[in-house]
Design a protein that fits this description.
By secondary structure, the chain is α+β, with helices and mostly antiparallel strands. The chain has one domain. The protein has two helices and four strands. Strand 2 and strand 3 form a beta hairpin.
């Protein structure tokens, strides 16, 4: 199950208002589609393309980050067929595959979102380590 590609297709960050009072930050990751695609660097290898949408919302109406992209995964032809059939029926990833796909997307999107939030003056959406005096 090697991941052979990862791309961001759309990145949007927006700071709307000043931060006042308590801030509620919510993250969401959605796999929007799974489809078969040809990989041009080999003869006839089919791969799976997982399209995703990752969002960070800063409430109340302070800002938002939206990232769309895709991840490419190489699998055997039988596994590709099975995954696509399951996706079409249930819109779910196989339990053994989901952690690898979702963790890779989350890792890359969290790093990108952290950088983007800093650029527009939004607080980090993940807890960063701090050093404290005792």
């Amino acid at each position: 199950m090697p991941i052979v590609g990862f791309n961001f297709e759309k990145i949007m960050v927006e700071r709307k208002n000043k931060i006042t009072g308590k801030l509620d930050i919510k993250n969401n990751l959605t796999i929007t589609n799974v489809e078969k695609e040809k990989l041009n660097i080999t003869n006839s290898e089919d791969i799976l393309k997982f399209n995703f949408n990752y969002t960070v919302n800063y409430q109340p109406e302070v800002g938002q980050i939206n990232i769309n992209g895709h991840l490419l995964l190489m699998e055997s032809p039988k596994q590709i067929k099975d995954i696509l059939i399951d996706w079409e029926k249930q819109q779910k990833l196989p339990k053994d595959l989901a952690p690898q796909i979702l963790n890779t997307i989350l890792s890359k999107c969290n790093i990108k979102s952290l950088s983007l939030s800093q650029e527009v003056g939004l607080p980090p959406h993940v807890r960063l380590p701090l050093i404290r005096n005792k």
